[in-house]
Design a protein that fits this description.
The complex is a heterotetramer, with two copies of chain A (208 residues) and two copies of chain B (80 residues).
Chain A lengths: L2 H11 L1 E3 H18 L6 H8 L3 H7 L3 H20 L9 H18 L3 H9 L4 H25 L8 H8 L1 H12 L12 H15 L2
Chain B lengths: L4 E3 L5 E6 L4 H13 L3 E6 L8 E5 L4 H10 L4 E3 L2
Antiparallel strand pairs in B: 2-4, 2-5, 3-4
The chains are: A mainly alpha (208), B alpha+beta (80).
């Protein structure tokens, strides 16, 4: 074998393929959603991606390291999506509307993500996810809430009271939609009309 | 994403399939690898069925690690 | 063996023990909550109750029959609990307050039940649960809503919009409480103050 | 609840542990039990590891059912 061929093979074998990295992450989430963290293994993942186990271990120290990196990346992605077009100086109603739009679009465009988040919530990886998410999301949302309080648009209330009024209705509708049925098994598909009618009641509840 | 390939050298990452299954095995490995010069970082994935041993080293080669483990009664081969 | 002893033994062996029946149902729910419907078997259940498999099969035709009967019974129990002190002629706010009280108490007194309901929702047994629940619950709640609309206390809206405003906040708080943490992992314990502060916002949203 | 015990007679319910594991076995059983006079109701729990056969009958006894299944190549014994 001449030296050029050798070098060529070397480069082919040892390049970091970003498309493949995305595939690995995508397949990992799919696999975790399907069989839980307990059922998830590096071996199964390698097979699903048609790569060798060794390739996985080049990029990730172990199974834990892989899951933590995915959780962190999803935390960042969620924070970025939620802050799209979000103006911390906007009025309370306008800002909350952008929050509803962003959260709604994020959930609709990532059908597996709500299951994955539920799994994260009840796992030891939740901390890493939240840390990354919070670091990127909290400064903006805190400024927004601070402004709304300063302008006297809403009353001061505990975070849990606020969240359960401001967002629980949205996530309830998304859940009905994802399950294809609402209360008592009635077939359900979300629409702009239903979404924004609910939003108007939420704003009525929260605005002074 | 406009960059699809990044050239990187991963020759310093050595990967092995082992039969180190327990935390006791991991402790023994700890004492072996501590004494071994050239091992910058290492970890053993006990949750994996191949019990993958991953070693970061810029001086040692695969044979050297395989010999070390074999001499201490462990099975150890290159992870493919 | 004299005939009296024989009869005595016969009665002992063949009596339906209602306490034991309750134990079977309780253990069945515990077991399903712990290992899902897939992990649930008549054998495991018999062992957990310290009875023979044959005893289980005396009362239940098979595994399916047992789960269906439990689902139906829970549907009835939930309907009965939700209608305690519920007056269909009450004002909207007073009636909704009783609904919140009853649902809150039901969830607090049955710590496993929310997990079991989630499992039912995604199972083939959901229909039997809902059928029983609805048959007992719907006439009263329909009359109540009808009255509130007639009196002009609330606007006409779709069931999903109504439910997500009226009850999603309550279940969000209960969930935070059950998990011991709210948004972003902040430790959380529900209180009357938080519960009824949230209720007031819900009433503000829904009342004309 | 004030009544703790209700006396009931369950002698008409016969229970067996079998090796009828498949839907094909269930179909064969169907044809056997259809022909058997005295069987009011029956079902086979394929989801159970004991493949429990449950028969409602006011005239047949256990031995009679065990013989019927044995003669058709199935294992069958009283469920305890």
């Amino acid at each position: 074998m001449n030296i050029h061929l050798y070098l060529y093979r070397y480069i082919i074998m040892r390049t970091r393929d970003i498309d493949k990295e995305q595939l690995v992450k995508q397949k990992a989430i799919e696999s975790i959603v399907k069989s839980g963290f307990e059922g998830f293994s590096m071996n199964k993942l390698a097979k699903a991606c048609h790569i060798s186990v060794a390739t996985l271990y080049i990029y990730y120290k172990d199974r834990d390291d892989l899951i933590i990196k995915i959780a962190q990346e999803e935390g960042l992605r969620m924070a970025e999506t939620m802050l799209q077009n979000f103006d911390t100086e906007a009025s309370f109603e306008a800002g909350l509307r952008v929050q509803w739009e962003n959260r709604f679009n994020y959930m609709m465009n990532n059908p597996l993500i709500s299951v994955f988040f539920e799994q994260l919530r009840s796992s030891t990886y939740h901390a890493q996810f939240m840390e990354t998410f919070k670091a990127h999301f909290e400064p903006a949302i805190k400024q927004f809430m601070h402004n709304a309080l300063d302008r006297g648009e809403i009353n001061r209330m505990s975070l849990e009271v606020y969240w359960s009024i401001a967002f629980a209705p949205l996530y309830a509708l998304i859940r009905f939609h994802n399950e294809g049925q609402s209360i008592g098994g009635i077939p359900f598909k979300i629409s702009d009309e239903i979404l924004w009618a609910t939003f108007d009641y939420v704003v009525k509840a929260l605005k002074k | 994403m406009s960059i699809y390939l990044l050239m990187e050298n991963f020759d310093h990452i050595l990967l092995f399939k082992t039969n180190c299954k327990t935390t006791a095995d991991k402790q023994l490995l700890q004492s072996l690898l501590k004494k071994q010069e050239g091992v910058d970082e290492w970890n053993l994935d006990l949750e994996d069925c191949d019990c993958v041993l991953r070693i970061i080293t810029y001086t040692l080669n695969q044979e050297c690690i395989i010999e070390l483990l074999n001499n201490n009664g462990y099975e150890c081969c290159k992870l493919i």
